[in-house]
Known about the structure:
Radius of gyration of chain B: 24 Å
Number of strands of chain A: 20
Strand order of the largest sheet of chain A: 13-20-12-19-17-18
Oligomer: heterodimer
Structural class of chain A: alpha+beta
Number of helices of chain A: 17
Largest interface: A-B, 72 and 63 residues
Amino acid sequence: MKAIFALTMLAALGCATPAQSAPSNTELKIGISQEFENFNPLIKTMSATSYMFSLVGRTLVSLDANGKWYPQLAKSIPSLANGSAKIIDVDGKKKIVATWEIIDAAKWGDGNPVICEDFAFALKVARAPTVSVGEKETYTLVEKIEADPKNPKKCTFTYEKARWDFYQLGQFTPLPKHIEEAVFNKYGKEKEGYEKNSNYSRNPSLKGLYNGPYVISEVKLGDHVTFTPNTYFYGPPTKIQKIIFKLIPNTGTLEANLRSGTIDMISPLGLSFDEAVAFDKKVKAEKLPYEVTFTPSVTYEHIDLNLDNPILKDVRVRKALVYGLNRQELVKALFDGKQEVAVHNISPKDSWFTKDPKEIVLYPYSKREAGKLLDEAGWKMGTDGYRTKKGKRLSLVFMTTAGNKVRELVQVYMQNQYKQLGIEIITKNEPARVFFGETTRKRKFGAMAMFAWVSNPENSPKSVLHTASIPTEKNGWSGQNFMDWSNKKADLLMDNLELEFNPVKRTQLVHQILKLYTDEVPALPLYYRSDTTVIPKNLKNYKVTGHQFSETNEVEKWDLNGTILN
Amino acid sequence: MTTYILRRLIQTCIVIVILSYVCFYLMTLMPGDPVDLMVSSNPKITAEDVVRLRKLYGLDQPSYVRYGHWVSDLAKGELGYSRTYRVPVAVLLGPRLTNTFILSMTALVFSLLIAIPVGIVSALRPGSAIDYFFNFFAFAGISIPSFWLGIVCIIIFAVWIPLFPAGGTQTIGGPELGFWADIADRSKYLVLPVLSLSLQQIGRFSRFTRSSMLEALRNDFIRTAKAKGLSRQVIIWKHAFRNALIPLITILALSISSIFSGAIITETVFAYQGVGKLTYDSIIGNDFNVAMVSFIISVAMVLLMNLLADLLYGVADPRINFT
């Protein structure tokens, strides 16, 4: 059905002509295809909400498009080197004390200053057992926040552990205490009482809830959000006077909405990759006033191998699977070469990335090498074209999310490649809800599970590679080491990584982990995804980041007064 | 008749209670609860977080206990809280139900206004050129998938000839324009979805009308009416159409019962803020409170509309009694 739908769109839009003029700084309408929830920064979990939240909410630090941390609400980032942070010893336990100073001009949308108490209040709310904050790690890492009695903008943060990444509090957003404290005091003791009655839920257009370059003037869940400039924003004044995010759930109609002028651009949370590639061709052929951008991201598309599977327990078979897959040809054939072949779980956008053959094990395509390894493992080619061992066929179940066209294409490609090696691939796809909610989480995926990991640069791989992160019934199926990969040396390296303050030594530790990861092949790296957007040609200073700290963190720089270049 | 209605209403309530528990229980059997879904999308959620969230959401309790809590909240007039959108269900569902009602009702009325005359004309001239012409369009309407039709409508009337908006429910800021301007604005957004929904319904209803009318026109009393010298209009409307109404009432009641359930494909293609997609997403996202309220509305509508249909049979045909 989806294929017919796509064909209809392609055929019909092939004859379509653009019906609109270039947008101006008066208004910009951005199309997204993912749902959003209310904007309470402590509770939000949806990608679209986080994406839009940066227009209205700023925090102490953020990550730029080059993967560098920079201060947002803070004057500077504390560090051991400049003396604004220090390691202290409390009862034999090492902790960090850091001083954060909030910039003087930082104010909420109602003119009240952003102060340390707003951060301390956010900490108090997030820690309350009645508030359904998803992961509390961000908040439990900070033990306490104290304000300087003489300067309410000078805060002392005490961190529970002496970790090198203590300053990475990009998700720690302040809450306007002067507005939200009354709600918390009244309803905070009831189960989910605070979030149900919070102004973010009941009165989302209250200006004082936001401290970013914009405030929300209208929210219609399931339809749109309208942003207008925050007159009290501490940074440079915004150039665009109104930004509207419009939800168009069907990605197939995004293009029609763009051409008809319902929207002016499509965010990275819009088109699927194949749709973006197809539209890019049309933009060039028809000379449309748009630019389709492809930005490498930190998203790592790969296949987790189930190491409980008796066939995959043999590392030679796993290595044969990587050698036997022509990934270079795959990205060229399916993605027009616009996505890069992955070598491991760390993307080229990350300063920890390496593809140095001295540091990691690389697997260039070699059908001969793959066949040799399978022969060594005892899997002999039969007359029917499939390999067997002790009468059993080399057959692997390959699962992914049903209905994802790109993944289904990759599956077909791989099925064909492995057939040539004598490996039978049986595809068994499931709806995303079942696949992620049950199958991968409980490691019920037979042999191979294809999906993607999204992370930030310099992010500890502990949650996906450490032995303690193998989901089991005992730990409530938490952790995301779905492969069941357990390597004591890698565990130790990951534990040490958290405590290593020297960036050079940290990189060395990561490379040692990568060496073990690439040598033991618990997963098949496929490609690093690219984020795609469609922007009007006159939009300037719009830089897609490719990671979780999206380009909306620099929305105040966006300018539609640029000259259209054809 | 009062006893009959009361008896049916009591039966309706019992069926709603039984079906609501069955639905609630079946939802608990679906793989992955709300916390599982959070865990799968956030690697930083720890085992402690899982235990804490399960307890907070009441997911650590058996389904009948959870159902009991839900029913007791409902009895107090609390529809609950959407864990997906983080807002009260009433806030979320209210405007969408209104939008869906407007869309579905407009499409239904529009379809009936066209389908009934078309069906009657076809039945009065079976095998004629006009009958073949209407049949062709009726079958085309029934056969064309609504998503395809929706796309074609967008391409033609929003991109090629920009007469109507490609998607949405109303212009952003529309309500500020004043009551009538808002109505006019909303109507503009309704045209394409209504057109897309109606073509299928017109095909269906006109076929039903045609066959019912043909059946009615074959009866002896029609021949008698003609022999009595009654006018053509009286024969068609008073004798034939009234007798043809019973099967139409059945199909109409079923159509009205789905008026609050939403047309998921049409709503998605036209980014129309209705209840259909919300219900689907709430089931997929394990948003129990939203899914359950939507379900109750659907079940209640089906049962009540069937009751209404039974009552209308009596109006259409006085021979039917309710003792």
